[in-house]
């Protein structure tokens, strides 16, 4: 049981840390993606992206250190369920499922299988986080070693600046929409005029 708990913790830590660092690395692209989703007010898009990234990184760190692991497990479950609710709002407003969890935007039609898959994935992650909170136990050295590795690997990749794709990395490559939309999105986010 202890080894399963360790693997669950490592998975959640790696998921949260990777998502947080990807958002921080590409916060502008993530902010434009949140703006496109039409749920968050334009001026709040960047603060929301940064706050979610900070919460994900903080939860990953708490889970890795074993600090307030029960509260961190419940908070992670709440975050996954909140994301599920957010995705359902996006699907209802835009008839599409949009995700910028990994720092780049992805858009899929909001079909029944796609929505069901998103809801199921969120519930599985929330369930794993609840299981971690419920099965709180004294952690072994193996637990701390594996969870430390799960936390530090995304950090090393982030600090090393390893590109996610080969080739040109440009905001125009990250979103399948017209460049004029980016200009409008950036204008909405920054309060400035159209970017040339």
Give the topology.
Blueprint: H1 2-25, H2 27-36, H3 45-65, H4 69-94, E1 96-99, E2 106-109, H5 112-134, H6 141-160, H7 171-174, H8 179-190
Antiparallel strand pairs: 1-2
Helix pairs in contact: 1-3, 1-5, 1-6, 2-3, 2-8, 3-4, 3-6, 4-5
Structure summarized in a few sentences:
It contains 8 helices and 2 strands. The protein has helices at residues 2-25, 27-36, 45-65, 69-94, 112-134, 141-160, 171-174, 179-190; strands at residues 96-99, 106-109.
Attribute tags:
196 residues, mainly alpha
Mean pLDDT: 81
Strand content: under 5%
Instruction: Output the strand order for the largest sheet.
Output: 1-2
Helicity, in percent? over 70%
Order of helices and strands: HHHHEEHHHH
Low-pLDDT residue spans:
165-169, 175-182
> Cα-atom Rg, whole angstroms?
18 Å
Number of domains: 1
Please give the number of β-strands: 2
Structural class: mainly alpha
Main beta sheet: 2 strands, antiparallel
The number of helices is: 8
**Overall geometry:** globular
State the end-to-end distance.
57 Å
Outline the structure in words.
With 196 residues, the chain is mostly helical. The protein has one domain (2-190). It is 71% helix and 4% strand. It contains 8 helices and 2 strands, in the order ααααββαααα. It has a two-stranded antiparallel sheet. Strand 1 and strand 2 (106-109) form a beta hairpin. The model is unreliable at 165-169 and 175-182 (pLDDT under 50).
């Amino acid at each position: 049981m202890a080894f399963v708990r360790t693997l669950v913790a490592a998975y959640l830590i790696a998921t949260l840390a990777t998502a947080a660092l990807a958002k921080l690395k590409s916060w502008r692209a993530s902010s434009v993606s949140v703006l496109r989703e039409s749920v968050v007010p334009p001026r709040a898009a960047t603060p929301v992206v940064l706050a979610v990234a900070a919460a994900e990184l903080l939860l990953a760190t708490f889970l890795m250190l074993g600090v307030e692991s029960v509260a961190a497990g419940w908070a992670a479950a709440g975050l996954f369920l909140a994301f599920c609710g957010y995705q359902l709002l996006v699907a209802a407003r835009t008839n599409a499922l949009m995700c910028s969890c990994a720092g780049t935007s992805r858009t899929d039609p909001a079909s029944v299988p796609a929505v069901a898959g998103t809801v199921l994935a969120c519930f599985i992650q929330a369930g794993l986080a609840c299981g971690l909170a419920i099965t709180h136990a004294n952690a072994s050295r193996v637990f701390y070693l594996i969870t430390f590795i799960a936390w530090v690997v995304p950090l090393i990749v982030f600090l090393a600046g390893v590109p996610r794709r080969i080739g040109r990395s440009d905001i125009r490559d990250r979103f399948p929409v017209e460049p004029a939309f980016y200009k409008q999105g950036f204008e909405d986010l920054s309060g400035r005029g159209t970017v040339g």
